[in-house]
Amino acid sequence: MKYISIFFITIFFIVIFLLTSFIRDSYFLNSISETKEIAFLIEEGQSAKWISQNLEDQGIIGNHLWFDFYVWLSKSEKDFQPGVFTLRPGMSYANLVREMTLIELQEVSITIPEGFTLEQIGKRLEEKELVTMDEWSVAVSEDYRNLFSFLKSQPELSNLEGYLFPDTYRFLKEVSAQEIIVKMLTNFGNKLTPDLRIEIEKQGHTIHEVITLASIIEREVRTDEDRAMVSDLFWRRLSAGMPLQADSTVNYITQKNTPSISYEDAGIDSAWNTYKYTGLPPGPIANPGIASIEAAIFPEPNVYWYFLTDASGQVYYARTNQEQNENKSKYLR
């Protein structure tokens, strides 16, 4: 009987010891007391078990089984985020999990809307404290044509306007302007599929021509139906030697954002002014989304030669210049 009592007392103290150790490691400090910082990488798709084992292998925790138990207890198995996290041996399990499940602590998410210009993208990146406008201006002026085949049809001395694909991105805080650009160009290359490139070539156009027109379409109209209609209208005007007369190209020069332009602005002497000069402008005026790119490649045949867009985004089409002037009187007041 005496030995049985000793056995249970021993078991009791072992349980108390283990429970105390677990609470200490979970909410206070774990068994390692170093203070050095370690860059800990979690890649997309890695499991909580893998993360736990790697934490032990790198000396951040003393026992991965205790950490596994804490993760299970806190129901955090699916909350870990990919990224690089600055961790220290001696951190509690609670702090470790908190660090690795709050992605905003190490990465910045940023959304670039369709139709943003290079300058607008740069300002948004600067607002997120990723790069400065000076760094951005230098990076977008560099030559990336040797890295991406779709840039081959670009004229020399062109910048990257039109080719930085609008999307939601996640960047590490230490990212460079060049790394941001390469990621956005890679995304553009993935969206402009081989089938789309073959179709562009079959039609006798260059990628640069299509992206230039797509950028104008992006800034002129808002719906997929209107994009395809306006695309056909623009291509026919180009074939007929008529000026595009796209207000968005003049707004690109003046940095305004109005549904109609002034008589004075229409007379600005710039190669981007499609009121003054026929043909496409030298390059894109914004960075179009895939819907506008596809509209430029697959126009919807129609009989209209003119259109206008009011402040609400409603589009009005016309067959003749007289009808266009009547629409202006009605809808652009």
Structure description:
With 333 residues, this protein is mainly alpha-helical. The protein has 3 domains: 2-105, Endolytic murein transglycosylase (Dna Ligase, domain 1), CATH 3.30.1490; 124-191, no CATH class; 194-331, no CATH class. The protein is 47% helix and 8% strand. The protein has helices at 2-27, 48-57, 64-73, 93-101, 118-127, 133-140, 177-191, 194-202, 207-220, 224-239, 247-254, 263-266, 290-297, 321-331, and strands at residues 38-42, 83-87, 107-111, 168-172, 306-309, 315-318. Mean pLDDT is 88; it is low at 22-28 and 30-34.
State the major sheet: 2 strands, antiparallel
> What is the end-to-end distance?
101 Å
Strand order of the largest sheet: 1-2
The general outline is: elongated
Contiguous runs where pLDDT drops below 50 for at least 5 residues: 22-28, 30-34
Mean pLDDT: 88
Q: Given the helix and strand composition, which structural class is it? A: mainly alpha
For the CA atoms, what is the radius of gyration? Answer: 29 Å
Q: How many domains, in number, for the residues? A: 3
GO cellular component, one term: plasma membrane
Transmembrane segments: 6-23
Organism: Candidatus Uhrbacteria bacterium CG_4_9_14_3_um_filter_36_7
InterPro entries: MLTG-like
Question: Can you give keywords for this protein?
Answer:
single chain; 333 residues; mainly alpha; Dna Ligase, domain 1; two-stranded antiparallel ribbon; two-stranded antiparallel sheet; 6 strands; elongated
